[in-house]
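User: Design a sequence. Structure:
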């Protein structure tokens, strides 16, 4: 077999695998060091009680011959799709029907798998810096900057890295708000400008809102469907990972509205939803029943209260990190309405140099900004997902660091 040559165009390791490898190598050399992980956005608070209880009950059900069930629906169980439609959309005045919701084992897989639906000529617009899965999954499918199939969307550091609408047509636009890695959040007018762009250019927006639950400012949109016209152009992806601590349990979902249609090469129109359903039923057997019961419990009254408390906890960590770096004289973005704090070094050190400095001198691991795109050079990302105690310890350790 000849391997997919597109892999030769990727860096050897995925960003977080590379960070993990360097941290492990450092720990090997310094077993005494107590490294505080502020690199990958992995949660540290345990699963909330209502979720754990629902998973236990579902497991009992699966171990009883009378209630055991095998394969579930590829699109996800109706009980979870209905809970999402009601609690994530209907209560906010957004009409999304359960059959427009597809449950999966996480947002990352959905984001990457959506490239299966893009035609050979599709040109994708990807902000820089941004979550590396957007670029890597498109490169795997043969799209590159060199062949003109990837267009980078500029993000201005002086405007909190907000993506700027390109002056040319692209077919697919990736937007992430609250943004990973910069933590900036798109306002209603900005999102409307993107929806208008997509409508005018027959483009599809892949809206990654994995961090929407961190938005506390009621003036900011949490769903792209709050914007008129978005049902015709936008796919929205959400995750239980950061919201409800499912990074290890795995569950997320993608919304593909019925009005979103695209064209085949022969010019005939088709609902994107039907293509996604065809793709999922072929390549995916559904998220596990037990985990979907756990996700359903996130929407119970106790579940929603516990989730809110946990998110408050992470937001407090992010905000004290932001404040500490601000006091040290670094420019920061995020840390409010977002679990991420994006730190820019005015001295112009490279991202990997700052990463090394923070790891070697202060035993704090971060994610180098350049791993999110070349515009992230000179920055690092820290997360609010560690414990409050570790966050305070990290801040104390950093007191010696000046810009
Ligand atoms: C991150 O740190 O950017 C995320 O944890 C990665 C992910 O969600 O896949």
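Assistant: Done.
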């Amino acid at each position: 077999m000849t391997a997919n040559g597109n892999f030769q165009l990727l860096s050897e390791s995925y960003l977080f695998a590379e960070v993990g490898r360097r941290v492990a190598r450092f720990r090997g050399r310094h077993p005494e060091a107590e490294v505080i992980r502020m690199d990958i956005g992995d949660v540290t608070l345990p699963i909330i009680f209502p979720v754990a209880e629902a998973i236990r009950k579902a497991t009992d059900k699966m171990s009883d011959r009378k209630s055991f069930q095998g394969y579930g629906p590829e699109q996800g169980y109706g009980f979870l799709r209905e809970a999402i439609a009601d609690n994530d959309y209907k209560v906010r005045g957004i009409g999304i029907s359960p059959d427009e919701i597809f449950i999966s084992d996480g947002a990352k897989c959905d984001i990457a798998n959506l490239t299966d639906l893009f035609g050979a000529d599709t040109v994708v617009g990807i902000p820089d810096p941004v979550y590396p899965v957007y670029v890597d999954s498109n490169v795997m499918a043969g799209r590159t900057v060199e062949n003109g199939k990837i267009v980078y969307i500029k993000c201005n550091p002086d405007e909190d890295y907000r993506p700027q609408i390109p002056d040319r047509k692209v077919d697919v636009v990736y937007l992430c708000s609250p943004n990973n890695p910069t933590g900036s959040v798109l306002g209603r007018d900005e999102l409307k400008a993107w929806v208008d762009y997509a409508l005018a250019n027959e483009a599809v927006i892949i809206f990654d809102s994995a961090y929407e639950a961190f938005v506390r400012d009621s003036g900011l949109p949490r769903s792209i469907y709050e914007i008129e016209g978005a049902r015709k152009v936008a796919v929205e992806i959400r995750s239980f990972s950061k919201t409800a601590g499912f990074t290890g349990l795995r569950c997320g979902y993608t919304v593909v509205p019925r009005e979103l249609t695209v064209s085949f090469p022969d010019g005939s129109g088709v609902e994107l939803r039907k293509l996604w359903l065809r793709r999922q039923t072929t390549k995916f057997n559904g998220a596990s029943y037990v985990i979907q019961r756990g996700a359903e419990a996130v929407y119970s009254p106790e579940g929603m209260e516990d989730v809110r408390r946990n998110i408050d906890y992470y937001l407090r960590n992010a905000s004290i990190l932001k404040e500490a770096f601000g006091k040290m004289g670094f420019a920061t973005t995020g840390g409010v309405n977002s679990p991420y704090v994006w730190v820019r070094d005015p001295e112009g050190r490279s991202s990997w140099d700052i990463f090394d400095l923070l790891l070697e001198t202060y035993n704090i691991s971060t994610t180098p900004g350049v791993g999110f795109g070349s515009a992230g050079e000179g920055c690092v990302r820290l997360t609010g997902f560690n414990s409050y105690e570790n966050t305070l310890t990290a801040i104390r350790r950093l007191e010696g660091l000046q810009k």
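The pocket of D-malate is lined by residues 40-42, 108, 131, 180 (CB under 6 Å). The mean pLDDT is 96.
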